[in-house]
Amino acid sequence: MTRSLLGLDFGGSSIKGALVDVETGRTLTSRVSIKTPEPSTPDNCIPAIAGLVRQIGGEGPVGLAVPCVVQRGIARTAANIDHKWIGVDGAALLGATIGRPVTFLNDADAAGLAEMKFGAGRGSSGVVIVLTFGTGIGSAIYIDGHLVPNTEFGHMEIRGMEAEHRASARVRTAESLDWPAWAERVNEFLARMHALFWPDLFILSGAVTENYAHFGPLLKSSAEIRSAQFTSEAGIVGAALAAAMRR
Length: 247
Ligand code: BGC
Description:
Layout: E1 4-10, E2 14-21, E3 26-27, E4 32-35, H1 42-56, E5 62-66, E6 70-71, E7 74-75, H2 90-98, E8 102-106, H3 107-118, E9 127-133, E10 137-143, E11 146-148, E12 157-158, E13 161-162, H4 163-167, H5 169-174, H6 179-197, E14 201-205, H7 212-215, E15 224-227, H8 234-246
Parallel strand pairs: 1-5, 5-8, 9-14, 14-15
Antiparallel strand pairs: 1-2, 2-3, 2-4, 6-7, 9-10, 10-11, 12-13
Helix pairs in contact: 1-2, 3-8
The structure holds beta-D-glucopyranose.
């Protein structure tokens, strides 16, 4: 029997969700997306997310992926969303509003879950680093399939700037970088990550990987590099998987 759970991915520009078959990783409904309210405070976003949940429907546990370090259920940072999220127990807050159990986790950790279970990292052992390129750069590191949560490699300093301020997908668009210029910045980031962690595999994720044919061949690393399989749905799928795992 299909077990479908709702995955939600909350980002600086949009909040999106879908029902996911957690046995296969496939989305069962088309993705519903709303613009992130401004300011993106919990007071503004929780009702908006609750509306999205009502619209998508389903029942049972819900997974909510956020661009925050989430330690023991509490958001400890808030990148690209309002800082009022810091200190918030997102599962308790959303759960009380929608009357369903909620699992609250970092968005890149969620994307990593999806890739490791059903995507480009399926069956991979050793050290795997999943990097998500979007508004920021998210990261997840897996060791023999086990996640070390809340790594924040996008904030690593390169040439005096945070890596995500040089090499995120948002920066590529904002600075009108062509693929070779952006790939050069990504290569610099991969080289730094490789020197520190010696991963066996990098998985690059985010909607930008829909254009992997343009930049993938320009990427270099001593580690293997793969494009994610879930592109822009990884966070949604991973959030639903996290909700399934908590049950
Ligand atoms: C945040 C991470 C998040 C990533 C992707 C970074 O700015 O610090 O927690 O995973 O953006 O949204």
